[in-house]
Amino acid sequence: MEAVKLFFSLVGLLLTFTKYAESRTRLHYVPHGHNMAVQNLFSRFVGSISDKCLTCICMVESRCQAVGCVSVNGTQTCGFYHIKLQYWKDCGSPGGDWMTCAKNYTCATTCVRNYMARYGPVSGCPDTCETYARIHIGGPRGCKNPETIPYWHRVQSYGC
Ligand SMILES: *[C@@H]1O[C@H](CO)[C@@H](O)[C@H](O)[C@H]1NC(C)=O
Ligand SMILES: *[C@@H]1O[C@H](CO)[C@@H](O)[C@H](O)[C@H]1NC(C)=O
Predict the structure, then answer these.
(1) CB 134 within 8 Å of CB 151
(2) Among the atoms of ligand 2, which is closest to the Cα of residue 100?
(3) pLDDT of residue 3
(4) Is the Cβ–Cβ distance between 129 and 41 less than 8 Å?
(5) How far apart are CA 100 and CA 2, in angstroms?
(6) What is the pLDDT of residue 43?
(7) How far, in whole angstroms, is CA 110 from its chain's centroid?
(8) Helix (H) or strand (E) holding 61
(9) Residue from 91, 97, 106 to probe ligand 2 pocket by mutation (most atoms less than 8 Å from CB)
(10) From which residue to which does the signal peptide run (predicted)?
(11) Separation CA 25–CA 77 (nearest Å)
């Protein structure tokens, strides 16, 4: 348990550092729109879901409302992002309790961010909203599963 918490603290630190490094890189070495090839190369290594992508997923799942829990084929999914118990465990169990966290926008968003930070970089898929959306619905290897494509199209329809 402590090891898992430590792991996610480290992931958090790493993300903070990467964001800092990224903003520095953009500001000082890669002026906006100046060198798309370098920017694309860099973004492929950052591996964190954008706020915009989170919002689109939240819209598909619940219209980004504080919905409760629903049972889908016998599996309960809860809150803003329709988070399942196993997903919450995989994201490091933030907030201490699955249902409470899933129904709290801040906590649920942290959970989705952690999940993507954990599985995005090892998925073998590019650092794009499509990858994150398909992992959200299909699990760690969801971005390679053709069955998750229609879900991505729904996420896309909110402007992502
Ligand atoms: C529920 O299970 C059935 C049969 O396995 C499947 O066809 C259906 O797509 C599932 N529904 C959802 C929402 O996953
Ligand atoms: C929601 O979650 C955040 C982060 O886990 C926590 O700091 C906050 O107190 C929670 N809000 C409520 C109303 O429980």
Answers:
(1) yes
(2) 14
(3) 53
(4) no
(5) 21
(6) 43
(7) 8
(8) helix 51-62
(9) 106
(10) 1-23
(11) 39
Whole-angstrom distance, CA of residue 92 vs CA of residue 9: 10
Q: Which ligand is nearest to the CA of 72?
A: 1
Give the number of the ligand closest to the Cα of residue 151.
1
Tokens of 92: 């490091």
Strand order in the sheet with 75-78: 69-72, 75-78, 83-84
Q: Tokens 């959970």 correspond to what residue?
A: 111
**Site of tokens 């499509």:** 130
Full-prediction pTM beyond 0.90? no
97 CB within 6 A, ligand 2: no
Of the pLDDT bands very low, low, confident and very high (cuts 50, 70, 90), residue 8 is very low
Phi, psi of 64 (to 5 degrees): 55, 45
Residue 73 Cα, ligand 1 centroid: separation in angstroms?
6
Average pLDDT over residues 126-131: 97
